[in-house]
Write a structure and sequence with these properties.
Strand content: 15-25%
Subunit structure: Heterotrimer of A, B and C subunits.
Number of helices: 15
Strand order of the largest sheet: 2-6-7-10-1-11-12-13-14
Family: Belongs to the GatB/GatE family. GatB subfamily.
Distance between the termini: 66 Å
Pfam family, one: GatB_Yqey
GO biological process, one term: glutaminyl-tRNAGln biosynthesis via transamidation
Oligomer: single chain
EC number: 6.3.5.-
Largest sheet: 9 strands, mixed
Length: 476
């Protein structure tokens, strides 16, 4: 039997405000446990919340960027939750009147077509405290309690784990671009719950749904959904019942694990938050916020393709984060070589950042210095091989490529006579390779060129080496 996968995502995003949603405590990440707290975010009796206006503004901005309509008259609600990380035994959130509704994101499918993923709602709410499970018991850190969140709920329009990842990547790029969240998944600024079910192909009746909670990486999201889809299908085909429940992803064993039976809306006993006033959002404020939205990632992607003539794939990768897009644009404009800029950023520089677990804004060298490196390569001053060593020094020291090249004597050798001597020496020492070449093994040329480059410590101009090697080997 063929099955169709049905996926909807609930994405929690920490907003980049300086203070929490209902009090004046800092939202700064880290700090000693329970030092960014006050009676309000600790849920102490008698404490009263007041709504941070900037939280509302950021939520509206996100909604506009995600093609939503804005709820002009709304309120906050209490959601009853009996967990140790929520000491009030309720969370202040939104129920019937979310601040944004009916938006969408477009993702690109493998065949090049686009697919619209509808967004049902965006609402604002407070984050819970953090539970620390230790050998002596469970500890509670309230630093995160009251940090402002948006919850962005998609409709069940996603049909594969890859589509889910694409949607989340596009959502992350938009939110970081407009500056409402840093979306640092490793710090918990972006967390995702996935609702997963399967149904018979061609059916319009959804299957039993399970929710996978709190995934904070694209890889975990794809693996967890794939596992859950496989589990659903095996259970159905074995004739066993599926239970609606909440599960978590066990990254060590690559399985989902039951947390609890799935709650329903009436379990939360929503009712209006009486300690906060209603929200009244007028058209003038909405338009003021709309004017602050910059060029969005998919718009920037199209411009990069047209302006810099780079491939669509490159443009898509470079616009996943605005810091990378801005870095690329500066280097491309200064160097006049957009494709080389793209290659360096997507290749060696991305590798360095991944190995050192840093972001592009943490690099010691500037866009101007990378442009200088590309100019040195294009001028024939250094080879690509030398440039790969120089970029590592630039990362470690922050020195300009020109300074590094001069200090280490790395200027490329374009002396034809000197290179010819090395070529002849290599050919004289590799009679077997010459014989293989004459038998039609043309790949031997690359091997011999590599020896010449090694002999010259990478300083020989590779174009001259290739030209001379092609000419000289025919004489043997």
């Amino acid at each position: 039997m063929e099955y169709e996968v049905v996926i909807g995502l609930e994405v929690h995003t920490e907003l980049s405000t300086e203070t929490k949603i209902y009090c004046g405590c800092t939202t700064e990440f880290g700090g000693q446990p329970n030092t960014h707290v006050c009676p309000v975010c600790m849920g102490l009796p008698g404490s009263l919340p007041h709504l941070n206006k900037e939280v509302v503004e950021y939520a509206i901005k996100a909604g506009l960027a995600l093609n939503c309509s804005i709820t002009k008259y709304g309120r906050m609600d209490r959601k009853s939750i009996f967990y140790p990380d929520c000491p009030k035994n309720y969370q202040i959130t939104q129920d019937e009147l979310p601040i944004c509704r009916d938006g969408f994101i477009e993702i690109e499918l493998e065949d090049g077509s686009t697919k619209k993923i509808e967004i049902e709602r965006i609402h604002i709410e407070e984050d819970a405290a953090k539970l620390l499970h230790t050998t002596v018991g469970t500890l509670v850190d309230f630093n995160r309690s009251g940090v402002p969140l948006t919850e962005i709920v998609s409709k069940p329009d996603l049909r594969s784990p890859k589509e889910a990842v694409q949607y989340l990547e596009r959502l992350k790029s938009i939110l970081t671009c407009i500056g409402v969240s840093d979306c640092k998944m490793e710090e918990g600024s972006l967390r995702c719950d996935a609702n997963v079910s399967v149904m018979k192909k061609g059916s319009d009746i959804f299957g039993v749904r399970t929710e996978i909670k709190n995934m904070n990486s694209f890889k975990a999201l794809e693996k967890a959904i794939s596992y859950e889809v496989d589990r659903h299908i095996k259970t159905i085909e074995a004739g066993e019942p599926l239970t609606q429940e909440t599960r978590r992803w066990d990254d060590t064993n690559n399985i989902t694990v039951v947390m609890r039976s799935k709650e329903y809306a009436n379990d939360y006993r929503y009712f209006p938050e009486g300690d906060l006033v209603t929200l009244n959002i007028d058209d003038e404020w909405i338009e003021e916020i709309r004017k602050t939205i910059p060029e969005l990632p998919y718009e920037k992607e199209q411009r990069f393709i047209q302006q810099f003539k780079i491939p669509k794939y490159d443009a898509g990768v470079l616009t996943l984060t605005m810091s990378m897009a801005d870095f690329f644009e500066k280097v491309a404009e200064i160097s006049g070589d957009a494709k080389s800029t793209s290659n360096w950023l997507m290749g060696d520089i991305s590798k360095i950042m991944k190995e050192n677990d840093i972001w592009i804004e943490d690099l010691k060298f500037t866009p101007e210095q990378l442009a200088e490196l590309i100019t040195l390569i294009n001028a024939g001053t250094i080879s690509n091989a030398i440039a790969k060593k120089v970029i590592v020094d630039m990362f470690n020291t922050g020195k300009s490529p020109k300074t590094i090249v001069e200090e280490k004597g790395l200027i490329q050798n374009s002396d034809t006579d000197a290179i010819l001597e090395v070529v002849k020496k290599v050919l004289d020492s590799n009679a077997k390779s010459i014989e293989d070449y004459k038998k039609g093994k043309n790949k031997v040329l690359g091997f011999l060129v590599g020896i010449v480059m090694k002999e010259t410590k990478g300083k020989a101009n590779p174009q001259i080496v290739n030209k001379l090697m092609n000419e000289e080997i025919k004489k043997y």
